[in-house]
Amino acid sequence: MSEITLKERFERALKGESPDMVPVCSVTQTGTVELMDMTGAYWPQANYDSHKMAALALAGHEIAGFENVRCPFCTTVLAETLGCTVAEGSVDIQPYVTDFPCKKKNDVKNLSIPGPLLESRRTSVVLDAVEIMKNNVGEDVPVVAGLVGPAGLASMLAGMKNYLMWFVTNPEVIEELMGTLTEACIEYSNGLLERGADAVVLIDSEAGPDIIAPQMFEASVFPLYRKFCREVKGLKILHMCGDATAVLDPLADAGFEGISIEEKVGVSFAKRIVGNRARLIGNVSPSDTLLTKGPEEVIIEARACLEDGIDILAPGCGLAPHTPLENIKALFRARDEYCSL
């Protein structure tokens, strides 16, 4: 019997089928300074040039060893496309929003998706990078593309202060804004899948219980997730930073194949909540462990994730740019040792 490909392993794990072993992937950002030095593809250029973006993303697989390739490295692609002002950042600082268009409630009514969305400066770079990556790895390695979800985008386009205040005082304004943004997310996600992505990751930490009450999530965000999952034609993952435990039950019914969790969520408890409705991805700490500790500590934490039943072993969030390469490789030692028992 022939060995299964990394893409088959990833897809089986994400669909709840039995892979030959637990995949080790990153569904969040993978760019590190070490990989930039080894490829010559540095930030900020690798956030704005499709060839550099693809080169750095491919290094996450070819050098670091992740069993997938993943881009982009920042969270500002749709935000800038939809009207935010963005600073480019530096070699170890991701692009970040400096100004936003929806300063008043009336601004939300005037917001529209620029057309063609997929031909904008930022989206076209990512779409081209995905195609380059796919052409490079073919059907053997899964290509994963990330984008910020409707709540995260709303907090960027309205500013966090307005986002939080309007959720309480004028929830209909936030719901209108997120409704428009969901349409952009759907169009962009389907574009990424058409260009070669095997899965899309919706990053939407601002919908989590660390930011808004679970009741607000269920009333205002959950229906948008259902719509997103119905209309996006491919594998879908939701990533939420912080302690997402309080919303895992509805999240598991949204239609995502995978839920990416950070280390504040207990894997075994999350498994009991989610059951077989979605697969769990994570959740080795990128800041407390992968960045600052040594390979042996990484192995201990990764082993605990595996023993608790994680479906895809991964960093709990995006890698810090100065994460040591040897710590990333320790994830594979942990998996290989665990799966050989």
Question: Which SSEs are present, and which pair or pack?
Answer:
Blueprint: H1 6-14, H2 33-39, H3 50-62, E1 69-71, H4 77-81, E2 85-87, E3 96-99, H5 105-110, H6 121-137, E4 143-148, H7 150-158, H8 160-169, H9 171-194, E5 199-203, H10 214-231, E6 235-240, H11 248-251, E7 258-261, H12 267-274, E8 279-284, H13 286-291, H14 295-307, E9 312-315, H15 325-339
Parallel strand pairs: 1-4, 4-5, 5-6, 6-7, 7-8, 8-9
Antiparallel strand pairs: 2-3
Tags for this entry?
15 helices, 48% helix, two-stranded antiparallel sheet, 341 residues, alpha/beta, 7-stranded parallel sheet, TIM Barrel
CATH architectural grouping: Alpha-Beta Barrel
Q: Using the CA coordinates, give the radius of gyration.
A: 19 Å
Main beta-sheet annotation: 7 strands, parallel
Ends distance? 21 Å
Strand order in space, largest sheet: 1-4-5-6-7-8-9
CATH fold-level topology:
TIM Barrel
Q: Unreliable runs, pLDDT <50, ≥5 residues?
A: none
Report the top-level CATH class: Alpha Beta
What does this entry show, briefly?
With 341 residues, the chain is of the alpha/beta class.
